[in-house]
């Protein structure tokens, strides 16, 4: 099974490799434009970025599947504050499926800076005195004291978007 990931970010590539390891995939990172802002600011924009990455990665390769992952922020109805959200999309060239990963509330001081136009990764780096938190544990790791991290969180989005292609329950196939 060949998979094209619509990103060269090592965390996103690892999320795909880790989640799909039982299928022994060949995973290729493909540098594509998400077609959305660097910091998506709604569910719709975050999903659109994941879909664009999946479609563009698939179109640029001979892979069986294209997978796109996107992190964003959004205000969610019934949930206080600004939330970090993660979405995945998978395509085989015909079907396109989406799935979400974990969602967590951002601390107010972080949310204020992001709502003023800053990107989450650099805000976290500034607060922590680090560089590249988005390519390591991510905000998810920092904000959960390591109970999850960005790779694991994105892995859930991979599982939820890719799962329908192998579960057999979406195409009238056998139930697992």
Verbal overview:
This protein has 176 residues and is α/β, with parallel strands linked by helices. The chain has one domain: Alpha-Beta Complex (Maf protein). It is built from 6 helices and 6 strands. Strands 1, 2, 3, 4, 5 and 6 form a 6-stranded mixed sheet that branches. The radius of gyration is 16 Å and the shape is globular.
Question: What can be said about this structure in brief?
Answer:
The protein has 176 residues and is α/β, with parallel strands linked by helices.
Task: Give the tags.
6 strands; 6 helices; Maf protein; 6-stranded mixed sheet; globular; alpha/beta; 176 residues; 39% helix
Topology:
Layout: E1 2-5, H1 10-19, E2 26-29, H2 43-59, E3 65-75, E4 82-91, E5 96-100, E6 104-105, H3 108-115, H4 120-128, H5 138-143, H6 150-167
Parallel strand pairs: 1-2, 1-3
Antiparallel strand pairs: 3-4, 4-5, 4-6
Helix pairs in contact: 1-6
State which percent range the strand residues make up: 15-25%
Quaternary state of this entry equals single chain
CATH class: Alpha Beta
Return the average pLDDT rounded to an integer. Answer: 93
CATH topology: Maf protein
Helicity level, as a percent range? Answer: 25-40%
Distance between the termini: 20 Å
> How many separate domains?
1
Task: Report on the biggest sheet.
Answer: 6 strands, mixed
CATH architecture label name? Alpha-Beta Complex
Give the total of beta strands. 6
């Amino acid at each position: 099974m060949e998979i094209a990931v619509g990103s060269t970010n090592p965390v996103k590539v690892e999320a795909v490799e880790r989640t799909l390891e039982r299928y022994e995939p060949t995973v290729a990172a493909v540098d594509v434009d998400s077609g959305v802002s660097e910091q998506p600011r709604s569910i719709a924009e975050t999903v659109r970025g994941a879909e664009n990455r999946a479609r563009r990665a698939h179109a640029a390769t001979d892979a069986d599947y294209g997978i796109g992952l996107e992190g964003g922020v959004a205000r969610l109805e019934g949930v206080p504050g600004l939330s970090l959200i993660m979405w995945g999309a998978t395509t085989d060239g015909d079907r396109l499926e989406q799935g979400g990963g974990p969602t967590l509330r951002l601390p107010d001081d972080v949310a204020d800076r992001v709502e003023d136009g800053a990107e989450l990764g650099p805000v976290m780096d500034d607060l922590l005195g680090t560089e590249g938190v988005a390519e390591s544990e991510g905000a998810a790791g920092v904000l959960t004291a390591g109970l999850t991290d960005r790779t694991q969180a994105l892995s859930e989005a991979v599982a939820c978007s890719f799962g329908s292609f192998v579960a057999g329950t979406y195409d009238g196939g056998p139930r697992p």
